[in-house]
Amino acid sequence: MTRPAKRITSEDVARLAGVSRTTVSFVLNNRPGQSIPEETRRRIFDAAKTLQYRPHASARSLAAGRSDIVLLSIPDLPIGSGISRYIEELAAALAENGLTLVTHLEGAHGRPVADVCATVAASAVIGLLPFTREAAAALHSAGAVAVLPPHAGEDLEIMEPVGHAQATHLIDRGHTQLGYALPAHTALKPMGDERLRGANSACAAAGLPAPLALSTSLEIADAAAAVRQWLDQGVTGVCAFNDDTAIAVLAGLREHGLSAPGDLAVVGADDIPTARLASPPLSTVAFDLHQAGARQAAAVVAALAGQDHDLGTTEGSLRVIQRASS
């Protein structure tokens, strides 16, 4: 039976470089306050490269005082292209700061996020939705230095500008009675409510009644029923929670032999790849996901350093993309 290859250790690097393990640790972990000659540093780096040495995670964590793992907790909700793209941008931004992103999908049969945090020794935990105070406390007890957002009720206001931008777009185009298509999935309700709050704010500022908010699934019959109710109430423009919901509204219109924008203008959010392929092409609110990932990563880095952190607002990273549906 073939034996597994021996793991290369810092002792092997030290032997090849002709220095102590302590010196190897100081150099490879970039320990500040050490006067180590540049030639010695070069020998250590060359030895590590020659041996293909990779520091063991637990040893690196011990040297740094924390791990480089950031855990992203994803609730049990549909993972669309917008969320996938955000995860990619966040992972890249964290990597630029020497941090590694690990994702955990919550669910009825999944392990509690605090257990996963303890298992992977995550230094920071990010929630796609805010944690409750109890959940945040459990994560800190599991070893997390930083938990973002801190607890429910904080930082969801970053969703409000989305609804505000949607409603403002329709108001600017002459619509005075709006509807809002909320998601039927219960896990999306907190975000849906905040986007609706933003639409309410835009209508109030324009002296218009609040949008008629209805929940609709991605089933055509469900969307068609919502369309009929909006039209019966004099609604001429609908803001949808996201592009998937907006495309369902477009399908509901076709079920009645109607179309956008003549019978009902529709605007979505997220600018998913299929938005431009919808019939008609869907107007939407787009995010700068690169900026969002960088902002979240900066907040994590600040929190791990014990500094004040601010997730900021999405408002500056939003833009309305007008297409034929509005």
UniProtKB/TrEMBL annotation:
It comes from the Bacteria. It holds the Pfam family LacI. SUPFAM superfamilies: lambda repressor-like DNA-binding domains, Periplasmic binding protein-like I. The keyword Acetylation does not apply. Keywords: DNA-binding, Transcription, Transcription regulation. One of its GO terms (molecular function) is transcription cis-regulatory region binding. InterPro entries: HTH_LacI, LacI/GalR-like_sensor, Lambda_DNA-bd_dom_sf, Peripla_BP_I. Residues 8-64 form the HTH lacI-type domain. The keyword DNA-binding applies. PANTHER family: LACI-RELATED TRANSCRIPTIONAL REPRESSOR, LACTOSE OPERON REPRESSOR. This is LacI family transcriptional regulator.
